[in-house]
Model the fold of this input.
Amino acid sequence: MRMLTNLILVMSTTIGRGYSKDESPRINTDSNSVTPARLPKVESSVFQMDAKRSVEIVGPILMEGFEIADSIYKLANAPLAKGATQQAPITILVNSPGGMLMSGYAIVDAINQAKRQGVTVKCATGVLAASMAFNILASCSEVYALKHASLLFHPPRIMTDKPLTRGELAKAAEDLERTEKATVGELVDFTGLSVEQFEYHFRAETMWTAEQLLPEMGNGRIQLVDSIIGSQYVYMFEKPNPLAALLRKLMGGFRKSKSYEVIYISDFGSKLFTAGDEQ
Done:
């Protein structure tokens, strides 16, 4: 029996920028000619993945999460660069619909240990950080996001591939309640929402864009950036899997492909992927 998470998609919004009075076109009365407008200065913000000290969390967080946690631990404890007095920051790309709590919290624990050792952990999301992936973001020293990246926090779930007795269901409910109590506090702190606000959106499973959530947080824990560079998976929440694609084709599509269900272990998410696969 495994505790897993799900995936929802959402439409995003954009906010336009107007010109102030001083930025509008001005008329030169001496020459009757039009003076070009003073355009607003736009500074582009970039999140740079460190080529030597980076980790990518792309796709569902399954058993590979333990390997990711180990990679973070090794980076935090690597020998110092020549002349350095402390470890350089670790950069992490998080593009994931979530996954197993056990392996996900192994990543969280590795990040927290790195921070206790004085290592800054900078995380960024380009498209999606939902469920367990959002919990991972909440543990980072600094968090960056593209403005239309989708963010979701919600209660944990238990999924099983066998029938359950009443006693087993009752035990599962106890496990969920205990897990929820252990994780909610850190999420409330990260989002900066009141307990009442958090509880509502937690239960409603509200999907936000980073641009929408940022003003609600009010604590500056997420910083919007214009671009994320240094990874080929900035705009993907799935790493290509040729074998899974071949199996789907051979077995008549997503619904009949057991291997694909293993890759995307999510009840809500699998329905969305099914719809996309059939277009």
User: Anything to note?
Assistant: Residues 1-42, 253-279 have pLDDT under 50 and may be disordered. The two ends are 33 Å apart (CA to CA).
